[in-house]
Write a structure and sequence with these properties.
Layout: H1 4-18, H2 24-37, H3 42-53, H4 60-70, E1 87-91, E2 113-117, H5 121-127, H6 135-146, E3 154-163, E4 169-170, H7 172-179, E5 191-198, E6 201-206, H8 212-228, E7 232-237, E8 241-243, H9 253-263, H10 273-289, E9 294-298, H11 307-320, E10 323-328, H12 341-346, E11 352-355, H13 359-369
Parallel strand pairs: 1-2, 6-7, 6-9, 9-10, 10-11
Antiparallel strand pairs: 3-5, 4-5, 7-8
Helix pairs in contact: 1-2, 1-4, 2-3, 2-9, 6-8, 10-11
Length: 371
């Protein structure tokens, strides 16, 4: 038997694949429960999972079948829901060769309905709101999000690089080396040009209760950013500030998010954006991490703290950062207006105000960060 944490993550992944909604916080709680009761006694493991992973009474039957399949290794258990009607889906992928099946012998059993469908899963998921995702759609979106790369804005470096064009600074070493080939005559003169390097990217993600429908997807985005490039720092904002860069550096997305959720003790709690930003500015930001960096704040702006404190800390952050980008998942709503106290206090100090409710909006965010 694997260690409790790894077993908890694997069982939660099986439940999601079977159609059960299992948040990251519930997986962390289940792992803690397994560490307390152990994995030897069946009843202890069963009730630890049922108390932490099952949120609706109608999910009990599916949980029982998944428990037998995972913990008791019952191969014949079928996790699919009972099917009362037989429906054949004719998938139209745009390929005419798929219209005729050469292996069809004409002896297929009769069915109740035949439905022809045409779909593009990636395109649909790109525009769908994260809050409406099913567990299967979220798993597919996770694979699409792993391909998302943040290029990062470039800044001028103190170093110089060789250039074929006439630069602002002569390269004396290369010029003398070339002159040795021509009898000491500097016929070919080499030049240097200023080099560039990507700016540091700082991501601060709100993981409070109001952000619960989006937090899991946005933390996946933070993981893709951390493992996809260097000079990226990630923080979680709730009632306190938590640095989660090290936890998100794992290549395994499920293990990374589980480690980050375990690290953040105030997951799905309250929000004190002003105090969290003050802690970031005092301990990391003003001291150097945010200087010349692109700072991205992912939050809906609902704050229980003092809005004047939030405005003061946003002003401090704007003075040292290259750009401040605020990502609000609620901005996609047609009736949205920045009326929340925190959002209204922070908006004057934001350089870019963008959406963050879907894969398409996160792709746009990657373009904004690269400017």
């Amino acid at each position: 038997m694997a260690e409790p944490a790894r077993a908890a993550v694997g069982f939660a992944r099986l439940l999601r694949g079977a159609g059960l909604d299992v948040p990251v916080g519930a997986t962390v709680t289940f792992a803690d429960a397994l560490a307390a009761v152990g994995v030897v006694r069946r009843d202890g493991v069963y009730w630890a999972g049922r108390a932490t992973l099952v949120r609706r009474p109608e999910d009990t039957d599916l949980y029982d079948r998944a428990f037998r399949a995972w913990w008791e290794r019952t191969v014949e258990v079928d996790l699919r829901q009972p099917v009362t009607r037989t429906i054949t889906l004719g998938l139209d992928t745009g390929d005419d060769r798929a219209a005729a099946d050469p292996d069809d012998d004409g002896d297929a059993p009769p069915v109740d309905d035949v439905v022809s469908v045409r779909y593009s899963a990636a395109e649909v998921l790109r525009q769908r709101d994260f809050a409406t995702y099913t567990p299967a759609e979220f798993a597919e979106a996770r694979r699409l999000m792993s391909d998302l790369r943040l290029a990062g804005a470039l800044r001028r470096s103190r170093r110089h690089r060789p250039t074929r064009h006439r630069g602002s600074r002569p390269d004396l070493r290369r010029t003398v080396r070339r002159a040795l080939r021509t009898g000491g005559e500097p016929i070919s003169r080499a030049s240097l040009a200023p080099a560039t390097r990507p700016r540091r990217l700082v991501l601060l993600c709100d993981v409070s209760g109001s952000m619960e429908p989006y937090a899991r997807a946005l933390v996946r985005f933070l993981h893709a950013a951390v493992v996809g490039r260097t000079r990226v720092e990630a923080f979680a904002l709730g009632t306190r500030l938590t640095r989660i860069t090290r936890e998100l550096s794992s290549r395994d997305p499920d293990a990374a998010v589980a480690a980050a959720a375990h690290r953040v003790v105030d997951w799905s709690g309250g929000t004190r954006l002003g105090e969290g930003l003050r802690a970031f500015n005092d301990e990391w930001g003003v001291r150097g991490m945010a200087r010349g960096a692109v700072v991205v704040i992912l939050s809906d702006g609902w704050d229980r703290g003092d809005p004047e404190l939030l405005a003061e800390q946003m002003a401090r952050l704007q003075r040292v950062a290259h750009r401040v980008v605020w990502v609000n998942p609620l901005k996609a709503s047609p009736d949205f207006a920045p009326l929340a106290r925190g959002m209204a206090a922070a908006l004057p100090y934001v350089d870019e105000f963008v959406e963050g409710h879907s894969l398409e909006s996160l792709e746009h965010l990657a373009e904004v960060v690269a400017r």
